[in-house]
């Protein structure tokens, strides 16, 4: 099933889709794959696989810590693609979440080709604007990949329209102004942003940044088509005594969130 | 003498030749520059760009900045001919120093922050943040914030807070909060990451006073235009002193703001050679250096496309230099374009060469330079040999070395390690 089909299915079931993130290579390549599979088994509909990067300026301390460990363990782009392949075999859409430089350095066309070969669904690019995607968009389209860009509460209506136009799969709506990390409250800004975006696009709108439990997921699911959870999953892994326990905790969280997106 | 600011009005980028699709976009220097940042920052960058354009065209704003540069910072800074240094280091060539070290706060950084602090007030924000490496930009920002009554937070790599403890105390005396950054390499690059994280979170109330000609548009242009005064003054001063233009202009290059500042007024003078000296650290061959243009490859870091030190997978490689202010794995996009177009030449100067030039200027001229600036002085030794005794070489002495006395004393064995 591709990403669009997942969102259609969720809509048919009158619920939001659940999108879960982990960086590749943490605590190890195999350990990361096990955790992602546990998340899929517990109800994650779409998987985001982070490409560990040395300068993750949109990430808070939790994801920074995991990514730093993954890099120190030698994780590189080939390990990310291997993780994509393993998750894609489950039939769940797997998107790579990457800052632009690693893709640029790997080669835009080569990355699109290898991601598609691995069974990847597409990529989310938090520091690439559609304005500067004159290489990425054609390469992604040529390999039938989703392209997910971000909108933020500070985005003008013009930029929301321009960004949504370049998105395929879904539009990533940042819930608050800030970096990744769990928050006690996910602000009202998200609902306003989604409402503004609805007026200019039919593409599914998924909300991320700050969501950490089923109640927050239910709240977001009441107005968005998808709920994106990252740091909370990573925290499960960081705080676990063993990789197996981390995968179990991530699975348990996924179940809570999956119930949340069905409770709207 | 010309008024210091009147000629430094806004100019556009040097060209828009480049990769397909890049031609008409703002903030591009050939294929370099642009904006590679989260969408959340675009509104603030657009606001900054808009306010900057309007300020640049506003005589009242320019007059206020002009007045501060004169009465507060002490501009115009002099040009000093250093004959003894020239005789010993440059094969007798005439060496002229543009004395940015004599600015208030001790370096060229004040030129930029006074302009950006005024812009912050104009935008109506009350809080400024900045990154700093050596501490010069942090001290300058804290100074301007104190002067204008703005709340000020400075991000500084933990490693740098140790190397430059005196500057941390300076910033705190000036009322700023200094936040040590303990992620990554704990130096300037990580301080920029952390400042950008603060900005994206607090952008409604906060302006990011970026310290160099890197980062997303409009910073490379904005900072360049505020530093352009260095070259505008120096060009006139050299003409008055020697009756002609210099044969070469030399500057150290970390992010590249002092270099762009002195280069820019000479870019159209085809006979004036432009030299940027990067930090060679333990030597480029050792892999422990900060010679971004010499040994790096084009990519994206901190919001702009430019040369950077990176591995085969696009991960940033940590830089090394005895000079905290040059210890940066990136460089401003306009330098990348000046390099590719052949207009400027970039060479590495290693720690030992820089320290030798540092000592030579102290002993021959009674001027203690910043170690950053000593890299440009070391470059002059090569230029003297190349250009001969009839040459006139203008060097940007971008900062003074008071902050570096501890490092230098250890290097020369005057203190215990």
UniProtKB/TrEMBL annotation, chain A:
Pfam families: Trp_syntA
Classification via PANTHER family: TRYPTOPHAN SYNTHASE ALPHA CHAIN, CHLOROPLASTIC, TRYPTOPHAN SYNTHASE, ALPHA CHAIN
Active site location: 48 (proton acceptor), 59 (proton acceptor)
Top-level EC class as recorded in UniProt: lyase
PROSITE patterns: TRP_SYNTHASE_ALPHA
E.C. number(s) listed in UniProt: 4.2.1.20
Membership in a protein family: Belongs to the TrpA family.
Known pathway: Amino-acid biosynthesis; L-tryptophan biosynthesis; L-tryptophan from chorismate: step 5/5
Reaction it catalyzes: (1S,2R)-1-C-(indol-3-yl)glycerol 3-phosphate + L-serine = D-glyceraldehyde 3-phosphate + L-tryptophan + H2O
Single GO term (MF): tryptophan synthase activity
HAMAP family for this protein: Trp_synth_alpha (MF_00131)
A GO CC annotation given for this chain: cytosol
The entry's keywords: Amino-acid biosynthesis, Aromatic amino acid biosynthesis, Lyase, Tryptophan biosynthesis
InterPro entries in UniProt: Aldolase_TIM, RibuloseP-bd_barrel, Trp_synthase_alpha_AS, Trp_synthase_suA
Subunit text: Tetramer of two alpha and two beta chains.
Protein name (database record): Tryptophan synthase alpha chain
From TrEMBL, chain B:
GO CC entries: cytoplasm
Record-linked CDD domains: Trp-synth_B
TM stretches of this protein: none
Domain Tryptophan synthase beta chain-like PALP, residue spans: 73-399
InterPro entries assigned to the protein according to its UniProt record, in alphabetical order: Trp_synth_b_CS, Trp_synth_beta, Trp_synth_beta/beta-like, TrpB-like_PALP, TrpB-like_PALP_sf
Keywords in alphabetical order: Amino-acid biosynthesis, Aromatic amino acid biosynthesis, Lyase, Pyridoxal phosphate, Tryptophan biosynthesis
The reaction(s) this protein catalyses: (1S,2R)-1-C-(indol-3-yl)glycerol 3-phosphate + L-serine = D-glyceraldehyde 3-phosphate + L-tryptophan + H2O
Leader sequence segment: none
Pfam families: PALP
EC number assigned by the record: 4.2.1.20
Cofactor(s) this protein cannot do without: pyridoxal 5'-phosphate
Region (Disordered): 1-30
Family: Belongs to the TrpB family.
Subunit and interaction comment: Tetramer of two alpha and two beta chains.
This protein's name: Tryptophan synthase beta chain
Native species: Phytoactinopolyspora halotolerans
